[in-house]
Design goal:
By secondary structure, this protein is an alpha/beta fold. The chain is built from 17 helices and 15 strands. 46% of the residues lie in helices and 18% in strands. Helix 6 crosses helix 14.
Amino acid sequence: MTIEGILRKDRVTKRLILRLKRGNIALICHRDIDSIASQALLGAGVRCVLNCQTSFSGEIPTTGALFLLREKVPVVDLNGDDAFEKLKDGKTVTVDLTSGRVMQGEVQLQGTVLDEAQIEKSLEKARRRFKELVNEFAENTLTHLKAQGNRLLYAEEFLPVPPGLFAGRAAVVVIRGPGYKEDLRAIRNFIRDRKPVLIGVDGGADALLELGLRPDFIVGDMDSVSDEALRCGARLIVHGYEDGRAPGLNRLKEIGLEGAVFPSGGTSEDAGYLLAHNGGADVIIAVGARFSALEFLEKGRKGMASTFLVRLKVGDRLIDAKGVRVLYSSGFRWWHIGALVAAGAVAWATLVVTSPSLGQFVRTLWLWFRTSVEQLWLRWW
């Protein structure tokens, strides 16, 4: 069996997602495809995924490749950086799913077609080894805590936003992480009623726009957010390195935009929380946040020292969107309407009982109605 389609490639998967169209064949360089990347690739409608790296190494129990296979999207490992150079973006490519051969013009490459059953078997081994990985993860976190502590705890001093700007308001920080779309839809009532400050972390800004919501701020490396989102009118804050370098500024300059730089360690997600905290938000709601060791390992992070410190700092205000979804509800419900009708009926009955003239009017009206119905009945029969 062979499939054919236009090839689109990028070394950064989240950047490639922005250019993919339905029916494309994606060429990525993504070791151990994580769940977020696989869902985004499926959502883009790709016909097949070619990977210059190992899609499932068995080192961590990541399920991205397995998810794609179960959704009938073939995955072929080319296992070689030269494949990325040889295959041309925008040109038709043919993939033989029987032999694993990939062809584009005169270029022919041999790949390995991933098998769902083999991955499931290897996944069980990876899960049994996961305890060791968690121990290593914890040790790495502790090792870096002391080194990163002071820099992160005082990083807010370099934020290009006045302290207390969001005082009296809630802030919603949207990260393109696990379940972000479902959680964002689930708290729409909260956003509608409370009018919180909306902070999109890179691609999280596009998630807000998809629901018809305009972010107030976009924070991040600017590598996985669309041009449309960047031009929506939000204030742009580029997450830079501690030495002042900010590669994301180049992206903004390319499309004629300007942004302020926030130099800090940690991740763009951490920068979003620090922005909301420094702004004085009463509560910070995280949408799509990463919490488990596996989620961090899937992103290639061997520890979470920066995230641990930032959450210690903002912890008294930070809650997950899933909690808001359970605790908060608003807007009219059917029982609201029923209560209004019942209250009206009680008020009307009270008036009839306490007012002789109104009671006489109601009895006369009822007599007229009954007589009219009886006459209609007789005519009909």
